């Protein structure tokens, strides 16, 4: 069964069904005790099948980051702590999987998930979420095994980037009745991620939705043309077109 689950680096129909069961437990309301056991089970899954999350397609890593981050905003402090530690465990395993070089896959998916959560979850970025970011930073600072690597500074950089996104979003909230100012803020955020095509696309898509909502269809079309150019450039660099 393990060999079947590992087929194509874990990107196969059987693993997808297994992962969807785990994901379902996170997406449904659970008791505190049940959730803690789900977090423990997820640690085992990540440890046994790292290639599923850190190699090939990023869909499973992305889905997991999104659900864990939601629990980083939980009203229960114990659940926030467990979720923060699980997210740190995911980052740390990604770092180990690359031979202690980086955790780019998880880093990117966390930022994308935060950007999506801003629109989906009320109150994301408040005190509870900030506390979870601090827990993640503390885990990195107290991890002696990776003391002489770049990991802790990379984690600090990630949490700093998340706070930047949250601050920019707070500014957007203030100007939500000023479409032009709102789009300017969105554009600045998209521009700041020029080196990361996936994130730049996320914010350009968001800009396009605002333009469509305001009836500015030609501006929305320009955003989508820009996205198409980004995708084409990325595929060309990868030698896929």
TrEMBL record:
Q: Does the keyword Transferase apply?
A: no
Alphabetic keyword roster = Guanine-nucleotide releasing factor
Q: Which InterPro entries match?
A: ARM-type_fold, DOCK, DOCK_C_lobe_A, DOCKER_dom, DOCKER_Lobe_A
Gene Ontology terms, MF aspect: guanyl-nucleotide exchange factor activity
* Keyword Repeat among UniProt keywords: no
Q: Which GO terms describe its biological process?
A: small GTPase-mediated signal transduction
**Which intervals hold domain DOCKER?**
191-241
Q: Which family is it part of?
A: Belongs to the DOCK family.
Q: What's the name of the protein? A: Dedicator of cytokinesis protein 9
Instruction: State the organism of origin.
Output: Colius striatus
- High-level lineage: Eukaryota, Metazoa, Chordata, Craniata, Vertebrata
């Amino acid at each position: 069964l393990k060999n079947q689950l590992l087929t194509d680096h874990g990107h196969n129909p059987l693993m997808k069904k297994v992962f969807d069961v785990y994901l379902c437990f996170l997406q449904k309301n659970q008791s505190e005790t049940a959730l803690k056991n789900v977090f423990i089970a997820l640690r085992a899954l990540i440890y046994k099948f790292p290639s599923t999350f850190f190699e090939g397609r990023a869909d499973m890593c992305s889905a997991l980051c999104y659900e864990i981050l939601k629990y980083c905003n939980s009203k229960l402090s114990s659940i926030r702590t467990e979720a923060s530690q699980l997210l740190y465990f995911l980052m740390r395993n990604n770092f180990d999987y690359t031979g202690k070089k980086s955790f780019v896959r998880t880093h990117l998916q966390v930022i994308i998930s935060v950007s999506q959560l801003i629109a989906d979850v009320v109150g994301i970025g408040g005190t509870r979420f900030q506390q979870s970011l601090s827990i993640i930073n503390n885990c990195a600072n107290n991890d002696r095994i990776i003391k002489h690597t770049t990991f802790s500074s990379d984690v600090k950089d990630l949490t700093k980037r998340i706070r930047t996104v949250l601050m920019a979003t707070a500014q957007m909230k203030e100007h939500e009745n000023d479409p032009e100012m709102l789009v300017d803020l969105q554009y600045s955020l998209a521009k700041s991620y020029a080196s990361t095509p996936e994130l730049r696309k996320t914010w350009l898509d968001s800009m396009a939705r605002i333009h469509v909502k305001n009836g500015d269809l030609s501006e929305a079309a320009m955003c989508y043309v820009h996205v198409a150019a980004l995708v084409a450039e990325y595929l060309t660099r990868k030698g896929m077109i």
